[in-house]
Specification:
With 253 residues, the protein is an alpha/beta fold. The protein is built from eight helices and 14 strands. It has a single domain, classed as Metallo-beta-lactamase, Chain A (4-Layer Sandwich).
Length: 253
């Protein structure tokens, strides 16, 4: 399996508009963060998790020429507003399978009403094949890739974390219910939400993320959805050896 971090930033991205903090002015490329998204390559399959608002830029930068499916964690702007940019892939390969939970589909069909209830003609529309995922109901995708959707809570919003064999991706969360915690054990790699150093009402901070990692004991963990409070070089000293801050264009094999 190959994992590429397409974006590792919070909803405003980093640098943030009109901000002159140390991180936003940093020359370190690891402090330049597009909105969160990852690309997974397994066998002959390529899977995108979240069509971030920066998806077009991410796809061009990572030279994404084909996708076999898109998995949505939840329907917030920074995670889904790049959905329309699936169209160039539709032009070449036809309709795309999109996977999301029932809550996200309710919002996607409202926000992208022009896709699901087209009222105009003559313009290109994304060609989407909706699939509804159910928490704790694993399924096989391609050759030997077992995907398990897991429910976590982003405030009161149910968000889907995904386990792909021995790798898991859990972003935008404050609480992981016990049943989902049990399904996140015995991992080679865990990618986990961590918005900043100080506490946040709907996201994990560093201390909370590290406590979860200490409980789950993955071999390696990477923190994502980082805002501009986190300066990569300086704050990496806060992390144990098996935990790192993710950064845009980081590739794990």
């Amino acid at each position: 399996m190959k994992l590429t971090f397409l974006g590792t930033g919070t909803s405003t991205g980093v640098p943030s508009i009109a901000c002159d903090c140390e991180t936003c002015l940093s020359d370190d490329p690891r402090d330049k963060r597009l909105r969160v998204s990852i690309l997974i390559e397994h066998d002959d399959k390529k899977i995108l998790v979240d069509t971030s608002i920066d998806f077009r830029q991410q796809a061009l930068r990572a030279n994404i020429g084909r996708l076999d499916g898109v998995f949505i964690t939840h329907c917030h702007v920074d995670h889904v507003f790049g959905l329309d940019d699936i169209r160039p892939l539709n032009f070449r390969y036809g309709a795309m399978g999109i996977y999301a939970n029932e809550t996200a589909w309710t919002d996607l069909k409202r926000i992208f009403q022009y896709v699901f209830q087209p009222t105009h003609f003559g313009g290109g529309l994304p060609l989407l094949i909706p699939h509804t995922v159910v928490a704790n109901s694993p399924f096989c995708f391609g050759n030997g890739l077992i995907i398990t959707p897991l429910e976590v809570l982003h405030g009161e919003l149910p968000v889907i974390a995904y386990r792909f064999n021995d790798f898991a991706y859990a972003t935008d969360l404050k609480i992981i219910p016990p049943e989902s915690m049990d399904c996140l054990r015995d991992l080679d790699v865990l990618v986990l939400d961590c918005v900043r150093v100080k506490p946040h009402s709907t996201h994990l901070n560093i201390d909370e993320a590290l406590a979860i990692i200490q409980d789950l004991k993955p071999k390696r963990a990477f923190l994502t959805h980082l805002n501009h409070d986190i300066l990569h070089e300086r704050d990496s000293r806060l992390l144990p050896d098996n935990v790192k801050f993710a950064y845009d264009e980081l590739v794990l094999v």
